[in-house]
Amino acid sequence: MEHQINSWEEYEKVYAESVANPEAFWANVAESFSWKKKWDNVLSWNFDGPDVKWFEGAELNITENCLDRHLAERGDQTAIIWEPNGPKTPEIRLTYKELHAKVCQMANVLKSYGVVKGDRVCLYMPMIPELAIATLACARIGAIHSVVFAGFSANALADRINDAQAKVVLTADGSLRGAKVIPLKDIADEALSHCPCVETVLVAKRSDKFCHMQAGRDVWLGEAMDAASTDCPAETMSAEDMLFILYTSGSTGKPKGVVHTTAGYMVYAYYSFVNVFQYQQNDIYWCTADIGWITGHTYIVYGPLLAGASSVMFEGVPTWPDAGRFWAICDKYQVNQFYTAPTAIRALMAKGLEYVAPYRLNSLKVLGSVGEPINEEAWQWYNKYIGKNQCPIVDTWWQTETGGIMISPLPNITPLKPTYATRPLPGIQPCLLDAEGNELAENDVEGLLAVKFPWPSMLRTTYGDHDRCKQVYFSMFKDKYFTGDGAKRDADGNYRIIGRVDDVINVSGHRLGTAELENVINEHDIIVESAVVGYPHEIKGQGIFAFVIVQEACSQEALEAELKELINTEIGPIAKPDRIQVVSGLPKTRSGKIMRRILRKIASGDVSNLGDTSTLLDPSVVEEIKEAVLGTA
Ligand code: 6R9
C-alpha cells in the first residue's frame, strides 16, 4: 500500500521529516488521491482562532476516493462483509461496484427529498449496511452527516437533531441486539415530536416490528432506493467544506458537535489506517465499533474504503448467542486485523476460556485496542489467547476531536510495551505539559497531554459555537490543542495514556460528562443535589457513582429504579449509574465548589489520603460519606 512504513528505521526517518517539513510531508501523501482540483496551499493555521486550513483551494469528493477510484482495478472485490445479528442469518457481501451503486441510489433518494449541499442529515440507525451507505450517500451530495449512536434515548436524539437543524432523519423500524429487538422508530418518533426542523424521515426495514409511518413525512427507504438511479455524480467539495458532525460529551452539560472537514480528514484516515493496521491487499479487516462513534466513522467507513480494503461490519453483540461470537466471526471470514475495545476484551475474558477454545484464530495478524486505557491483565490475555503470542497489539490513542489515531505502535515495527500506546504517528507532535503550561521536554515525565502542531484530521470547530471550541481545546494552553487526558512518557519516549483529567468519565469506552449526568439526576423531584464521579470498574473500566441528596426519606430500591429509568430516557442505557448513594451533604469548598477529588477517592474505596479537608465548608460530611460508602468512619 502506498505510504506504508516498513521498518523502524523508516519510521524514525519519516517521523523526523514530517516534523521538519510537515507541508511537504502531507502534500506527498495527498498526491495519491484523486482531486478535482489540487490545492493552492497545504496548510495555514493559528490555534488562537482556532483557524486551521489544510489543502486550501483543492476540490474533491471523498466518495470518489472511497469508491469510484477503485472501480477499474477492484470493482468486483468485496468492500463490506456484513455479518448480521443472528449467526444463522446469511451475511451480505457488497463489492466496490455494488456499494458504489447503492450509495448513488441513496444519494438520489436524499436529493429527491430536497437535500442539497450543506444540509444536515441525521443518521439514527442500527449497524446495517444502510448505515454505511447513508454515510457515504450524504458525502456524495455534500450533505453533512450527523450519526447518532442508536443506543441514545429520544431526548438525546432530539437535542442532537435540533442542534444541527437536520432536515432529514434516517432510521429503521427496529434494531436487533442479541435476543432483543429495540423499537428504534418509536424512539425516533418520540424525539421527532420535538424536532420541527425535520421534513422527511427515511425508514429502513430491519425487523418484523410494526411501526407507525406518518403520512407526508415518513418514507420506506428500501422502496425509495429500488426506484432510484444508480448513477449520481459526486458533488464538488472544497477541501475545508464540512464532512460531518459527531456529538461528544465534554465536562459541561451539553454535548458538543465536533466538526470534521473533507480533505484533511480523508488524507489522515487513509494514512493512519494503512500504517496502524499494516493492511495488505486481500486482507480481511474487522473493527467491532459502532458507526455511531468516531472509531466507526474513521475505521469502518472511511479509512478502509479509502485503502480499497475488505472489511467486516457486525450488527450484533459480542456475547450473543454466546461469548465466542467475536472469535467465531474471526474464523468465519479469516479476519487478519481485528480492532476492538478493552471493555469487550475484559467482558469476554471474564466469561472464561471455554468460549475461545473452539476457535483456531489462525488468520489473525494484528490486534487493536481503542477507547480507554487497556490494563495489563487484559493486554496479556488478548496477546496470549487471541493473538497466540503471534500478533502485535496496537494500543491506539485518539479522540473524536482528533479524527484519527494519534499515538500507536506500528505492528511488527514499533517495539511493544504492554499498556503503552508508544509513539506518535508521523505528522503528530504530542507534548506533555505541567499545570502552568510549561512543556516537560525530558523523558520519564508525567503531565497533561497536548498537541503542538496541526494535523490534517483535527477538529475545525464545534458546530454552531466556535467559541466553545476555542475555550475547551485551545485556551487552556497557548498555541496548543489540549486533549483533556493525562499521560506519561517513559525513558525511551513511549507514551502511556493515564486517563481524563477533566470531568469526563469513560464507561466501557464511551465518554460521559459528569455534568450531563447530574443535570438529569437533578430533574427528579426528590433530588436536591447530586455529584457524579467515576470509579474503577472491573469490566467497564470506569463505573458511574452518583452521590445524591434527597428531599425526604425514600426506599433505596425505588430511588435507584427511578433514577436509572430517568437516565435511560434522557441519555440512554450506557449512562445508567452503577451505584447510587444517598448522603446528607456533599463536600464543598467555602466558595461552594464540590470537591470531586474526595468523592472519587471514596468511590474507589481508597480513603488513605483524602488530602486537606480543612478548607471544606463542613468537613464532617466527609466522615458521613465514608461511613455510608465503606461502612467505616
Ligand atoms: C477514539 C475514541 C476519547 C477518549 C480519550 C481518552 C480515551 C481513547 C485510548 C484512550 C487510553 C487509549 N482513550 N483511546 N485512553 N488509551 N488507547 O475513543 O474517541 O470516544 O472521543 O474518546 O478516550 O481518554 O480522550 P472518544
TrEMBL record:
Biological processes per GO annotation: acetyl-CoA biosynthetic process from acetate
Gene3D superfamilies attached to this UniProt entry: 3.30.300.30, N-terminal domain of ligase-like
GO molecular function: acetate-CoA ligase activity; AMP binding; ATP binding
Domain AMP-dependent synthetase/ligase: 68-454
Domain AMP-binding enzyme C-terminal as annotated: residue spans: 516-593
Domain of life: Bacteria
EC number: 6.2.1.1
The keyword Nucleotide-binding is annotated on this UniProt entry: yes
The keyword Mitochondrion belongs to this UniProt entry's keyword annotation: no
Class of this enzyme: ligase
SUPFAM superfamilies, alphabetized: Acetyl-CoA synthetase-like
Pfam family, one: ACAS_N
Keywords: Acetylation, ATP-binding, Ligase, Nucleotide-binding
Limits of the Acetyl-coenzyme A synthetase N-terminal domain: 11-66
Family membership noted in the UniProt record: Belongs to the ATP-dependent AMP-binding enzyme family.
Record-given protein name: Acetate--CoA ligase
